[in-house]
Amino acid sequence: MPVNEPTTSYFEIVKREDYSDVTYMLEVSHPLMARAAKPGQFVIVMSHEDGERIPLTIADFDAQKGTVTLVIQAVGKTTREMQQTCQVGTRLYGLVGPMGIPSSLSHATKVLCVGGGLGVAPVYPQARGFKELGAKVIGVLGFRNKDLVFWEDKFKSVCDELILCTDDGSVGIKGMVTDGIKLALERHPDIDEAVAIGPPVMMKASAETTRPFGVKTMVSLNPIMVDGTGMCGGCRVKVGEQVKFACVDGPDFDGHLVDFDDLMVRLRRYKEEENAAMKRFEESCRMRDFMVTDAEVREAITTQMGEA
Amino acid sequence: MAKKRTVRTIPQERTAVRELDPVVRGTNFEEVNCGYNEKEALLESERCLFCPDPKCIAGCPVNINIPAFIEKLGQKDYRGAYDVITASNLLPSVCGRVCPQENQCEGVCVVGESLEPVAIGRLERFIGDRAIAEGWVNIPAIEPAPYKVGIVGSGPAGMACAADMAKAGCDVTVFEAFHEPGGVLRYGIPEFRLPNSVIDAEISNLKKLGVRFECNTLVGRLFTIEQMIEEMGYQAVFIGTGAGYPSMLNIPGDSLNGVLSANELLTRCNLMRARDFPKVDTPLPLGRKVAVVGAGNTAMDALRVCLRLGAEKVYCIYRRTKAEAPARAEEIHHAEQEGIEFHWLTNPVEVLGDDTGNVRGMRCVRMELGEPDSSGRRRPVPIEDSEFDFETDQVVYAIGTNANPIIGQTSNLGLNKWGYIQCDDSLATSLAGVFAGGDIVTGAATVIEAMGAGRRAARAMKSYLGLRDDDALESPGTLFGIDLREHNYARVRIA
Ligand SMILES: Cc1cc2nc3c(=O)[nH]c(=O)nc-3n(C[C@H](O)[C@H](O)[C@H](O)COP(=O)(O)OP(=O)(O)OC[C@H]3O[C@@H](n4cnc5c(N)ncnc54)[C@H](O)[C@@H]3O)c2cc1C
Ligand code: SF4
Ligand code: FES
User: Fold this and answer.
1) Which one of B282, B298, B351 would you mutate to disrupt binding with A, by most A Cβ within 10 Å of its Cβ?
2) B132-168: b (≥16 Cβ within 10 Å) or e
3) DSSP secondary-structure letter at B73?
4) ipTM of the complex
5) Among residues A133, A283, B296, B430, which is most buried (max CB within 10 A)?
């Protein structure tokens, strides 16, 4: 790299797409990170000075363009606020990464890549990585319905077979990702590894589905994090008999060893505070809407008066 | 004939320092120790005997010329005193506040043999604060050297190394993973002990020396140590990434909600300002009855933060006695004043949960002191059938840390068996041009030791780069491998 190039590029958002009213994609400029990122890694984002540090899996990276892509579901206060404030041309206050141990793209010859909900985007770099290593890739993606489907093309370009699952059957098979997994495993008994990313319940169910088939299943855990550098222990998870810090020992672990119930309990840790923050946020949004209307009314009145 | 010496009487009593009222301060994050004013500092400076063979200097990990600075202080030459201190210590305002002086300079001060020792720390802080108020910085005439130096981690070790290398003319960049620099000083030590304004002042002094700070940069993952040397044009690198990785007790109930490490508690409260939640977004739900396990500085900080955040009861659980507690004496004293309940000789055996996964209590066992262990401290052993339960809804572990694994995972640096970076005496690592110091080499220690290590590494770095080192001229330490302080060392005359 050229000497004296700044290491951080002030995290400008260069592209944004909205996949549904809760899912949005941000492409952020960070040339160095775009070069360093590997499948399975994540970043920690701070959207503004008073914001939280939230972990987000890197959904894609482009060394040529110097950007990393984040796909975000607006579920809590921070992600909903970002949905409003993160527009093209704005900057994130903080962005650090790539964090975590990259996924070990093994020498598997046929791999099952499963993504559900907020896990669809993060499983993409793994699917692409396996493809690049010459493996056959079978994709299974779960969405609620046809309208929420995104990145179908991207996945098609790296998957040898893609199975879509929707709750209502509006596209692909009707059912959960676990139904898709079963279908894939029955059709392809030679699958030698699986990767499943999504909400903890979905990863748990996926791991339970592959267990009887004896297919090693890696999952990417998303506990509450603060620093992401192994310094606080907030992200600790139970894997087999051991306690691991997901941010530095993971985020990928063997899904057949992870204690998902423990993870789910720990994810509820700040539920009360989150709900309170969310409520306040919604109220302040309503207030703002109200204020806007108020200002618009006033503006309308002034224009009228001017015209008169 | 020996020179006649006038006998001088010194003030017998150590000059008291003003402190905030324990009841009032328990509700806010204002600094507890108000520091000396000029009058108090001058009075205290009279207590120094200006010993011909000052013990205090040897007691100081960075060998500040203590009597010299106290003498200047006594002559109201505060700038002169500042120059004396900063010849050895970059951060007088910080160290005056957080050094365990009772184990260092003040612990060996001659006055302390019969009276209370000279309050060296408070005098140091007085000078440091005066320097900040007056905007003094010692920026030497820096002759640019054609070297790029990278510093990983912005704690005291990194800051000290950065300062020395900048003074030697190098182009210095400090990389920090967090969004703000300062290391433990920023995220760990709370404002009532070390205000952020002090850290900001020290950082801005470094910037005046030409040091650049790049936050949000996780070295190892964004680029590796090897890449810094091989591709990014850094001729030398210093690693001061701290200890991190908090230990858990490994008892049943560890993973219950409501059990967290002191590091998490303190980071949320200090760095992320969760105490202002919901004005800021980071939450820190606090229990009504909090138990903190451990009795080091980290534990004291956690205890007192919980109190200030509004906990009704705050218990300190420690398996040895107060005499063995590793925290600074002043912090334990302050914690006691503020109403923290100390339970010495008590060891947790289980954290008890309710059916929703939250902490509801803790089971402990009483201990007694047995035979001394390898550390020389008497080993605590459980007293049979002394288990008891008590109610608590939050448990904070402050029982030490392990080595942070990131640099080890991402480089070929030699590590010791505990995962800390392996260094020789000059703090050079197994990679040429790469030096390390502070908690990532020694395990959790102190601010002043980390700072001293940063300076020691800077010295080695300068000789590695072939830069003239004025500091080395002052105290060569060893000559041809002979320790100059060795008993029968005699200078050999050549020719
Ligand atoms: C709560 C608490 C209270 C304490 N109180 C006292 C006290 O009163 N007196 C005393 O003397 N000592 C005290 N200590 C100990 C003292 O703070 C430490 O010994 C000292 O800060 C160590 O300095 P350091 O520079 O080695 O590391 P740190 O201060 O830990 O700084 C390391 C920095 O490196 C950053 N970093 C880590 N990994 C990377 C990476 N890969 N890339 C980029 N940056 C990275 C970290 O984010 C951090 O900012 C206390 C410690 C704690 C936790
Ligand atoms: S040992 Fe005490 S009295 Fe002697 S010089 Fe040091 S501070 Fe002064
Ligand atoms: S997020 Fe703090 S240790 Fe993992």
Assistant:
1) B282
2) beeebbbeeeeeebebbbbbbbbbbbbbbbbbbbbbb
3) H
4) 0.80
5) B296
Domain residue spans in chain A?
A: 13-98, 110-267
Per-run averaged pLDDT (10 residues), chain A, 308 residues: 48 86 88 89 88 88 90 83 84 89 84 87 89 89 85 88 86 85 87 89 89 89 88 89 88 90 81 70 56 44 41
Greatest pairwise CA separation for chain B in angstroms: 85
The CA angle B16-B17-B23, to the nearest 5 degrees, is 115
Q: Any bridge partners for residue B434, and if so which?
A: B237
Identify the CATH number of the domain in which residue B31 sits. 1.10.1060.10
| Cα(A63) to centroid(ligand 3), Å | 27
CATH 3.40.50.80 fits A110-267, yes or no: yes
Using CA atoms, how far residue B287 sits from A190, B366, B395, in Å, is: 52, 24, 9
| Domain end among B341, B374, B399 | B399
From chain A residues 75-114, the ones with a CB under 8 A of any chain B CB are 77-78, 93-101
Residue B259 lies in a domain: no
CA gap B141, A41 in Å, rounded: 45
- Phi, psi of B144, rounded to the nearest 5 degrees: -60, 135
B362 & B410 share domain? no
Say which residue the tokens 């959904």 belong to: A59
Question: Total domain count for chain B?
Answer: 3
Å between B288 CA and nearest CA of chain A: 16
Q: Do B98 and B26 belong to one domain?
A: yes
Q: Which CATH architecture has domain A13-98?
A: Beta Barrel (2.40)
